User: Which sequence fits this backbone?
């Protein structure tokens, strides 16, 4: 019995972890929130979000196949730019994933509140969970934790079964609604303010904050579980890109079904408010069998995602411990079950804190989305940097035109952050900076020379974050700014500034990447070519 992670996940199991993470509470509420923000053009928001996710995920697969380690998404930047940037990127990524665990439980309880029973209606009131609702959500989070406690094989078997069900129910829902009531004119916005009633900015904001980025964030799960994947060079790209493609089809079907079934009144698309959108529509069209299936799936879909992200966040915590910014106890792996149990316990406690502080799906989804965007920023920077500093290193997956693709991925990430609208974009950046004292504590024994080197490689990132926040503050009014930069020109300015910072970030990488933060894992295969 060796205290190593078990490489027990095959290509389909890894694919299902990505799908399970993507098709969770996002499908229960994402279509409604996207329509409220973008109107009939919400379908374009999903297509744009999928394209951006594919670009970023494609770049990430090269890193994941190069370094198939536990919690890979929180470790790549530490290899290329040192511990300070590594810590900040890891914090954003970890927050974005661990906070998904309570949000999935909240989604289940919120759907449950639309049951006809008086006790159920007491679970969710005034846009947030009540005390009894919080208690039920806490029980669900505990179940997610327990399903991860006894090994990756139990988690994988549970996940495959749940994911198959999670694909069938949303697809059936979309088809049933479209065959029961479908107003084709809604898709083009006839008599409802047009196809883009909230303008292009509505589409872009929907991508950032209405659950689109939140939904596609699940592509990270196969990368963070890469330390337990068989043949990572083949399974990782299959799982990452395949899960994004399948999820895109499912979400587009659901968006078309929602737009076609609903006839908004004088308040327009933004005036619609359902506590359980698809279930309430099913009841309105006398599809009681579908409503029952949806109420059941309201537990299954979010729970599958919650279980997956509990597993993923534990591996990310393990990765942060390997980076030297988490206590040593969180890096322990159970000798029999091969899972990081202390990390699971830690993330269970963090999930309870998020559950108490953010009691509504919509509020927490916006926070997660912006943290997710920040976590994307270092993926292309690290990938492009390694092409320069380690050109001969074996790459089982090689992204074509990496310099161009990586720059495009960074620009997209910056635009997503800007589209999130002021002041949310600035608030999340401030939250991230508040974690710096934690970094200082864990790295307090580093000598001055090591701190100076870490800061030198991080200067560009420390300048980048307030720069984007400032652009968001003075940007156009459709994105919450003061309007000093006209609408349209603001997008061009953010893109141009992003290209400059991308170049600065790549040039700031260490000439000799620190592979010690990767190769110290006991159970890693040899890295060919280096």
Assistant:
């Amino acid at each position: 019995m060796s205290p190593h992670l078990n490489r027990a996940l095959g290509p389909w199991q890894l694919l299902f972890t990505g799908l399970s993470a993507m098709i969770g509470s996002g499908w229960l509420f994402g279509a409604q929130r996207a329509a409220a923000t973008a109107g009939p053009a919400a379908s374009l928001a999903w297509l744009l979000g999928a394209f951006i996710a594919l670009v970023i995920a494609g770049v990430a697969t090269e890193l994941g196949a190069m370094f198939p380690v536990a919690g890979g998404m929180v470790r790549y930047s530490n290899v290329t730019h040192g511990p300070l940037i590594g810590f900040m990127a890891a914090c954003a990524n970890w927050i974005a994933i661990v906070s998904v665990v309570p949000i999935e439980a909240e989604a289940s309880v919120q759907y449950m509140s639309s049951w006809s029973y008086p006790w159920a209606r007491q679970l969710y009131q005034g846009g947030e969970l009540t005390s009894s609702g919080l208690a039920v959500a806490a029980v669900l989070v505990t179940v997610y934790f327990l399903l991860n406690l006894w090994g990756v094989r139990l988690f994988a078997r549970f996940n495959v079964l749940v994911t198959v069900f999670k694909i069938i129910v949303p697809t059936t829902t979309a088809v049933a609604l479209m065959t029961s009531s479908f107003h084709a004119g809604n898709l083009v916005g006839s008599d409802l303010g047009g196809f883009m009633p909230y303008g292009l900015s509505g589409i872009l904001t929907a991508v950032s904050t209405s659950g689109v980025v939140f939904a596609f964030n699940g592509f990270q799960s196969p990368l963070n579980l890469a330390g337990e994947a068989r043949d990572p060079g083949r399974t990782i790209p299959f799982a990452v890109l395949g899960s994004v493609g399948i999820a895109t089809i499912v979400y587009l079907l659901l968006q078309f079904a929602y737009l076609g079934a609903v006839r908004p009144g004088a308040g327009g698309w933004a005036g619609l408010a359902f506590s359980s959108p698809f279930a309430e529509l099913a009841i309105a069209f006398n599809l009681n069998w579908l409503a029952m299936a949806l109420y059941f799936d309201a537990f299954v879909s979010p729970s599958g995602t919650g279980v997956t992200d509990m597993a993923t966040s534990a591996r990310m915590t393990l990765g942060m411990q390997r980076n030297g910014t988490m206590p040593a106890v969180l890096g322990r792996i159970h000798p029999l079950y091969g899972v990081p149990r202390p990390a699971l316990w830690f993330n269970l406690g963090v999930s309870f804190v998020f559950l108490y502080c953010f009691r509504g799906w919509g509020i927490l989804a916006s926070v997660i989305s912006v943290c997710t965007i920040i976590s994307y920023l270092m993926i292309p920077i690290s990938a492009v940097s390694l092409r320069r500093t380690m050109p001969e290193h074996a790459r089982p997956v090689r992204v074509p035109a990496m310099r161009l693709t990586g720059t495009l991925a960074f620009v997209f990430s910056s635009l997503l952050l800007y589209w999130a609208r002021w002041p949310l974009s600035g608030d999340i950046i401030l939250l991230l900076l508040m974690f710096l004292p934690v970094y200082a504590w864990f790295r307090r024994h580093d000598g001055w020379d090591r701190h100076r080197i870490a800061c030198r490689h991080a200067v560009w990132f420390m300048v980048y974050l307030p720069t984007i926040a400032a652009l968001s503050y003075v940007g156009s009014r459709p994105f919450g700014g003061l309007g000093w930069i006209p609408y349209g020109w603001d997008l061009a300015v953010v893109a141009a500034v992003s290209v400059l910072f991308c170049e600065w970030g790549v040039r700031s990488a260490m000439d000799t990447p620190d592979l010690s933060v990767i190769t110290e894992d006991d159970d890693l295969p040899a890295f060919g070519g280096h």
Remarks:
- The chain has one domain: 11-266+274-512.
- The domain at 11-266+274-512 is CATH 1.20.1740.10 (Amino acid/polyamine transporter I).
- Residues 520-530 have pLDDT under 50 and may be disordered.
